[in-house]
Amino acid sequence: MIFCKKNLKRFITCAIFPIGLALVGLTYAQDLSRKAAPASAVSSDNKIRNIDGVAAVVNTGYITRKEIDDRVAALQKQGTKLPEGVDFRKAVLERLIVEKIQLQNADQEGIKLTNKELDKIIGDIAAKNKLSLSEFKARVIASGTSFERYKESLRDDVILTRFREREVDARIKISDAEIDNFISERARAITGKGAAAPRSTAPAAGGGPEEIDVAQIFIPVDAAAGVSAQADAKKKAEALLIAARGDIDFMQLGEITAKENPKIKFQELGYRTPDRLPQIFYEAVRNTGGGQTAKVVVKSPAGFHVLKVLDRRTLVAGAAPQQEAPPPEPASTPPQAIPITQTNSRHILLRLRSGFTDQDAERRLQGFRDQIRAKTADFAELAKKFSEDGSAPAGGELGWMSPGDLVPEFEQAMNRLQIGEVSNPVKSEFGWHLIQVTDRREGQLTVEKQRQFARANIRERKYEQAYQDWIRELRDSATVKILNAEDAAASPR
Question: Left (φ > 0), alpha (ψ -120 to 50) or beta: where does 113 sit?
């Protein structure tokens, strides 16, 4: 069930071969010259420039122009349409600088990956692709990189993932009140009972410091992405900004949008003084009243942000921060389990990879569907042979799923099926699926399950902002000197 929302992290850390190669080529493909430069080599600009093709010095390490070339070439191998010119190379360099800083800090914090651990991870990747280790090595080399370079890039990837999770998770604080509010809202959505209480937008009296309650819908886009991807993300953000100016509740708009595209995030930042808001956010909402959206979409290195001021209030000088509302009286009865419909289904998953397009996957799954409907093939047997995820040995069986357990595209298609019916091919962020519902039952979402689900979703909402804050602090604390980054390396190594 690696396409379940609650297992996204497991999906990333258990990436199969095509994704493993993409990590080398797209995200962490850097030259083995990542090793720190000796201090004497960076004592002056002239000495720095004598190092072969150095593009930037990062603390005591450096990044070469060859590394930029490799990253650009890797993006091209993935079929990405890339812009030309100096600005794109600078964006790629910035991405490499941020990665370098993270690796340096991870090393200082003692985060390591032993050779034994690395070999086990590689063995797991090979096994998931049903390849022997020698076959896997041959496949890596055939992709255009050496196996040693692949191992070092994979090592960096795992170290970065562990470091990010540790550091960013420590920044995310989730209170019991937030969990209770989430459960309450979700219970209303499932049962259709009750309505959300209106939000007060009147500022408190007084002349002290101001606090602003800002919410955002965030459309991520990589700084090194092509012009087309940047334009599409901006167009989507501007459409959301127009929609947010209507009568729809901003957080509801964010929820609807996130269901349509799980990569899009939405969150309420809560009451913050201006110095605790990201500077670009504060500049955008400085003159925006409570209940109003920012006039323009905000662009950051991570993507595009649609902002709305939910409330503004002024604190009385010397007084403690005003609470949004008095805490609710404890309920006379404990929270109750929510009645839900659970679905048992199975699927065949085909992942997209180089040389295997959407059309190829859709055509192949449609062929499977025709065979199953004509009773010339069995769904479970086809899943065992062809499905490309962990459910294949069990014939694609996913077990009993509750509302919200699966990514929206899959869940919506599944909910439209009758028992025994097979879907048309369905695309999600993980690839293409063929789905069959085997049974349904009435169940209950227990209080414990509700709290687990709420905590996971609140964490997901808060993660992006916490991650961006962390990255900005790392970047600001590093010593970075940009050199001759614009030109390509003189010759390949």
Answer: beta
Sign of CA dihedral 382, 384, 388, 394: positive
**Between residues 380 and 41, which one has the greater pLDDT?**
380
Domains of the chain in sequence order? 5-171+478-482 (1.10.4030.10), 213-311 (3.10.50.40), 338-445 (3.10.50.40)
Tell me how long the chain is: 493
124 pLDDT band (50/70/90 cuts)?
confident
How far apart, in whole angstroms, are the C-alpha atoms of residue 60 and residue 40?
10
Of the candidates 55, 34, 38, 154, the one whose C-alpha atom is nearest the C-alpha of residue 103 is 34
Q: Are residues 255 and 243 in contact, defined by beta-carbon separation less than 8 angstroms?
A: no
What gap in Å lies between CA 153 and CA 421, rounded to an integer? 44
HSE toward the beta carbon, residue 48, CA cutoff 13 A: 23
Q: Single out the residue of 117, 125, 140, 151 nearest to residue 14, CA to CA.
A: 125
Condensed to tens digits (0 to 9), the pLDDT of residues 225-273 reads 667 777 888 888 888 988 888 778 888 888 888 888 888 888 888 888 8
Strands 397-401 and 480-482: unpaired
Pairwise CA distance, residues 36 & 59, whole Å: 9
Which token pair is 311?
């409330």
Residue 358, pLDDT above cutoff 70 = yes
What angle is formed at CA 473 by the lines to CA 51 and CA 5, rounded to 5 degrees? Answer: 105
Of residues 233 and 437, more confidently modeled: 437
Note the pLDDT tens digit of each residue in 404-421. 788 888 988 999 999 999
CA 368 to chain centre: 31
Interval 290-340: pLDDT, tens = 888 998 898 877 788 999 998 888 765 554 444 444 444 444 344 566 677
Q: What is the layout of strands, in order, in the sheet containing 54-58?
A: 61-64, 54-58, 480-482
Q: Which helix (H) or strand (E) holds 220?
A: strand 210-220
443 DSSP β-pair partners: 340
Contact in structure between 432 and 358 (CB atoms under 8 Å): yes
CB 290 within 8 A of CB 203: yes
CB 308 within 8 A of CB 250: yes
Burial environment of residue 340 by CB neighbours within 10 A (0 to 12, 13 to 18, 19 or more)? middle
Measured between its terminal Cα atoms, the distance across the chain in Å is 42
- Provide, for the chain, the percentages of residues in helix, strand and coil under a 3-state DSSP scheme, each rounded to the nearest 5: 50, 20, 35
Q: Locate 177 and state its tokens.
A: 């009140």
Identity of residue 35: K
Decide if 62 contacts 56 (C-beta within 8 A).
yes
